[in-house]
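Module 6 notes. Inverse folding takes a fixed backbone as the condition and produces residue identities as the prediction. Think of it as a translation problem where the source language is geometry and the target language is the twenty amino acids. Below is one complete input and output pair. Work through it position by position during the lab.
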């Protein structure tokens, strides 16, 4: 079984990492998680029946924070809207998961979508926090997409890509965000597997994408409902977001979840420990975890609650700690 340390660093970087650990005494397998919540106006639109995108995003973040982490975890929490982001909590404040949940629940809606600016700034925040130590780094992004407010002076500013992932147009915002997450430099392409220099750090990007599939029809508008655009251009831009976000998560070994009005409610707002997706944590979920215990699994595997791609004691403990949650007396 791989350790967190082994998963974070490619083999070529392991010798450097171990040598630094012996001399500095500061090596760690802790994880740093930056939760990035979109609170732009379009998040007020309905997601699944009876719930807005904003409500679903909050519930999904809360469920993630309820999951048993495989290692000690530091959290940072940012929101974004208008032309920038708000760092609600920094890593240095060392807030608990419960404190982050309270702040998530207290967040309110705002205006436009500086998505590219916020994601790239989040990458910098993760890279620059305790840079001489060795930690797993993760962005958890909850958004409905539709970048429209990043300033022209920003490192990740660019037009929408005229081509879909993985053949992103050079200098588009998608191309720059992908580069930033994979290489640490918005203008430097490279494989995500090589890591961010100098230590080859792998940054994981988990994305909850709350959107509607948009058909090619006349009079199409943006997700924010701001400006009518050419029907084909509008629909292509909105639907290509899903391909881009899914591709970015996959490249960085993260998890992508696309939530639309047709998503079953139990999948849209999952209960921690519910591997079967029936909304109830019970013996069936425990059996599902045990059936894959010790296995390395693909991202998005229902039994891998903590998203480390290994079904192990932490996933089993998530079931036990939430046993009976969401169940009726009949279950």
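Target side of the pair, the amino acids:
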């Amino acid at each position: 079984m791989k350790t967190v340390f082994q998963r974070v660093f490619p083999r070529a970087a392991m010798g450097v990492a171990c040598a630094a650990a012996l001399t500095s005494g500061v090596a760690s397998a802790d994880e740093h998680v930056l939760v990035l919540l979109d609170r732009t106006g379009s998040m007020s639109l309905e997601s699944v029946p009876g719930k807005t995108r904003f409500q679903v995003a909050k519930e999904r973040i809360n469920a993630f924070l309820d999951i048993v982490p495989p290692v000690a975890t530091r959290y940072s929490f940012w929101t974004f809207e208008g032309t920038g982001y708000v760092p609600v909590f920094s890593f240095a404040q060392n807030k608990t998961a419960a404190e982050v949940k309270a702040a998530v629940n207290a967040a309110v809606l705002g205006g436009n979508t500086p998505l590219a600016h916020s994601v790239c700034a989040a990458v910098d925040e993760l890279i620059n926090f305790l840079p001489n130590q060795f930690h797993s780094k993760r962005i958890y992004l909850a958004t409905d997409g539709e970048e429209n407010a990043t300033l022209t002076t920003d490192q990740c500013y660019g037009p929408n890509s005229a081509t879909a992932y993985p053949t992103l147009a050079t200098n588009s915002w998608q191309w720059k965000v992908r580069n930033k997450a994979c290489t640490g430099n918005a203008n430097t392409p490279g494989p995500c597997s090589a890591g961010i220099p100098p230590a080859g750090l792998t940054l994981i990007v988990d994305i909850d994408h709350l959107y509607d599939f948009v058909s090619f029809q006349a009079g199409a508008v943006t997700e924010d409902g701001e400006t009518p655009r050419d029907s084909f251009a509008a629909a292509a831009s909105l639907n290509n977001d899903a391909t881009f976000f899914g591709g970015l998560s996959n490249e960085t070994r993260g998890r992508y979840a696309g939530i639309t009005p047709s998503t079953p409610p139990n999948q849209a707002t999952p209960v921690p420990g519910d591997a079967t997706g029936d909304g109830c944590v019970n013996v069936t979920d425990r059996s599902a975890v045990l059936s894959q215990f010790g296995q390395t699994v693909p991202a998005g595997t229902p039994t891998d609650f903590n998203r480390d791609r290994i079904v192990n004691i932490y996933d089993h403990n998530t079931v036990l700690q939430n046993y009976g949650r969401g169940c009726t007396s009949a279950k």
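Reference fact for the lab report: Residues 30 and 72 are 5 Å apart (CA to CA).
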